[in-house]
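quick one, 423 residues, struct below
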Amino acid sequence: MRTKRLTHWFRFLALGIILAMVMASCAVPTAKPGIGTSDGNRATSPACGSAGPLVEAPNPALDSLKPLVRGFAQREEIPGGVLLLVHRGKIVFWEAFGYADPDDKKPFKKDTVVFLASTTKPIAATAIMTLVDEGILALDDPVSRYLPEFKTLLLEDGSTTTAPTIRQLLSHTSGWSGNQEMSSDGTDACCDVSLTMKESAALIAGDKLLARPGQRFSYGPLSFQVAGRAAEVSSGKSFDQLIQQKVFLPLGMTDTTFRPTPEQGERVAGIFRQTPWGGLLNLFRYDFDQEIRLPRVAAGLYSTARDVAVFLQMNLNKGTYGGCRVLSADSVAEMQKHQIGDAEIGNTPGNVNSYGLGWIRKDRSDSETTTRVSHGGLFGTVGWIDPERELVGVLFTPMPLKQARTIHEKIRARVRELIPVTN
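---
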């Protein structure tokens, strides 16, 4: 049984709180021209890889946020965390508070590394969308164009169906099961880090769909894992290489990785939960002996507040950062559109009823674009983009999001009050 090979951490995920996540072997056909290819505006600028850092320009008008966030940690409502706000391209607030490990009294610092869980999704989707820009992948191609083993898939009722498209994979409308619905093979495919991407995809290809592609929105890691494998085969690069070359290097995201180095591991925050009797109980500490082969495309990244803020700012800038174009403006917009149509809402995190390509949208409306997009992770991470305020925000509080949700809402509501919409 593959789950027996999981480390302590992944046994916990597979049996308890399943993540809100989530190498070319043959030649594949060339996709039709991508979304952003017409203007030649892809990430080929000489400036790529030399993007300058965000500049700190603290705004005293935001100082009231400091006692607010510190108070949550002092009362042990959360272990600790960090809040970073970028307004009009400058860091106007950046405060780390509380502990990265309350048991050891290890302070949470600005460069503390956290496990992003599902906050990985928009970052991974961006790497895949760079291939759409280049015409290597096409959103409306069936994934079987790149992975023939997905040509005919089995439904739970015993009937068969054709493969989902890349668009359906990135919008969770592929038909595969979502979190808390997955079979043992599905759980292995996304959580067993001893697997290769090819082995992970093979398990998913044999897993039964709950609905025909496009008919049901079911939020989970399986679709992203398949999309990641299609990106590998079509590009001829491992997913690690792809996301490094297309996203991390151009944006200078040096602390974002599926596999922390020993130095980064020393900075990884533990994950804690509130207990009924008061205080905080540890759920996870980084395992330095863990060998990770499988990049969990939907939910496996580690990162820092600054790195995530840079990624968000690139999106607010419609695909550019520091003179470098990472993604075409058309692809940025496409990712933020409502992509699930009138699909039945199945497994969903919270009250989500509108999803783009790797982004949770503010609400479902008749508009083709959204005024606010975000993505949270199972363990208290969230990044958001608020174009009306020219604002991006990052909030990390490493604990189950179910326990941290109310605290997050209070902090973000106060941010909106202090940074109002201006004409």
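The first strand starts at residue 55 and ends at 56.
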